[in-house]
Write a sequence for this structure.
């Protein structure tokens, strides 16, 4: 495996931070090597400096995308840490549905939900399944818009396709839920059309402005800010506060905290989970 | 340390015997079945890691049916099919149905042992990934409890500080009243 020099480490770490916001610990050189050496070798680069130069000169930014795909962590699973989904089912969704009840029974209830780092889509599909299971035959009275965004093109593509292999399925999906919402597709499983129709995925770098996304009723931003510096985390949650309706709900990772990061949010506890709302 | 248990399903007694001897020599546990019926019955009653089955066997239950039965058990059983050269297309179809691999007759044992080793390696990787995930889950849930308690505590302390600030900066109150009101709020915490 191609070895990285201390000077290259500094250059590459800075570059990765610039293109993605991801902060990689420079003391962990193996992290850079295991994730980037194959890209360097494929491109015929004999050093990481050469890879960096090539990536900077690449007008189509294809190498930049490859690097982002390689360094971003896509660890995710269906219903990861059950807490937030129980929270959605028993507390947040019923409250949002009440708050957004339309003035006339002929109108539909509009609800917008955003999974800000959707990876391969398991989180957003889990939210969609929670909604379908909660509302059942009443689904037609609602207009749910679920958006998933991620910085990596590859995972956005995978999420949009909605196909999962048996290892991804085995993690977190109970058998009845699987049979209700997925169809067998060769040796893999594909999400059913009703579920797929509720969601949309697109590429978004959380470090850049969120132009044109509008306001959301519920935002999930779990286990992504942990890869950012404190300064970048502050900026991110401030922008998320701008993108959240005044009475909206924010869910972050179960081991994350907003103390000292964004005073605009107040933590609220429900059963064994926490969610955040904007301070009045 | 080949701790895989292998079920050999083949109607040819010579091939069964041969596979049994070679696999035992490589330290695999081996079970035998002379047709698809016995094969599926053995699968349902024993812990099997890998099925090595002939594709074409007399009777209604051939290699494909054994494959489907094994996959239906949801026990993470890998199936390798043994085929005559002429049935390679069927074997490829079987791969799409979840077969781990296929081998052409006559069986090349070096190839077979490589495939089995690959399966064993894959299983041990899956096992360590599962162990890591479990360790992570425990760490995560313990940390989450602590962090969430602190988060709620920090939130309530912040709101106390905010209300004390409101009192202390209230120009309508005289200094003594400010102190009394502020102390009331502080005492309410304890």
């Amino acid at each position: 495996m191609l070895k990285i020099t201390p000077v290259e480490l500094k250059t590459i770490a800075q570059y990765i931070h610039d293109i993605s916001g991801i902060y990689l610990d420079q003391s962990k050189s193996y992290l850079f090597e295991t994730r980037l050496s194959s890209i360097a070798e494929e491109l015929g680069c004999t050093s990481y400096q050469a890879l960096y130069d090539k990536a900077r000169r690449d007008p189509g930014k294809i190498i930049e995308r490859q690097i982002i795909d390689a360094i971003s962590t896509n660890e995710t699973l269906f219903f990861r840490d059950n807490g937030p989904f129980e929270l959605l089912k028993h507390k947040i969704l019923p409250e949002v549905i009440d708050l957004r009840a339309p003035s006339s029974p002929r109108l539909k209830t509009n609800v917008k939900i955003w999974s800000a780092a959707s990876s391969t889509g398991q989180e957003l599909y889990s939210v969609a399944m929670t909604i379908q299971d909660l509302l059942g035959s009443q689904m037609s009275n609602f207009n749910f818009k679920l958006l998933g965004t991620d910085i990596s093109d590859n995972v956005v593509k995978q999420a949009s396709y909605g196909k999962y292999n048996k290892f991804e399925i085995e993690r977190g999906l109970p058998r009845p839920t699987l049979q209700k919402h997925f169809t067998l597709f060769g040796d893999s499983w594909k999400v059913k059309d009703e579920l797929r129709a509720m969601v949309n995925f697109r590429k978004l770098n959380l470090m850049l402005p969120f132009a044109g996304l509008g306001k959301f009723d519920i935002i999930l931003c779990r286990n992504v800010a942990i890869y950012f510096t404190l300064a970048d985390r502050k900026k991110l949650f401030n922008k998320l506060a701008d993108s959240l309706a005044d009475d909206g709900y924010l869910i972050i990772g179960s081991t994350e905290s907003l103390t000292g990061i964004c005073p605009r949010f107040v933590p609220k506890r429900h059963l064994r989970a926490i969610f955040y709302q904007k301070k009045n | 340390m080949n701790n895989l248990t292998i079920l050999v399903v083949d109607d040819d007694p010579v091939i069964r015997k041969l596979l049994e001897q070679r696999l035992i020599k490589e330290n695999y546990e081996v079970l035998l079945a002379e047709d698809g019926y016995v094969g599926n019955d053995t699968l349902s009653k024993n812990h099997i890691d890998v099925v090595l089955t002939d594709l074409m066997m007399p009777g209604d239950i051939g290699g494909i049916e054994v494959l489907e039965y094994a996959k239906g058990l949801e026990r993470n059983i890998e199936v390798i099919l043994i085929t005559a050269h002429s049935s390679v297309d069927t074997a490829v179809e079987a791969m799409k149905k979840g077969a781990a691999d296929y081998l052409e007759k006559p069986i090349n044992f070096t190839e077979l042992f490589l495939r089995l080793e690959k399966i064993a390696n894959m299983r041990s990787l899956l096992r360590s990934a599962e162990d890591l995930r479990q360790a992570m889950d425990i760490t995560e849930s313990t940390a989450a409890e602590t962090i969430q308690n602190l988060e709620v505590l920090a939130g309530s302390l912040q709101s106390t500080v905010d209300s004390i600030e409101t009192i202390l900066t209230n120009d309508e109150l005289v200094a003594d009243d400010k102190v009394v009101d502020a102390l009331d709020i502080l005492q309410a915490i304890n």
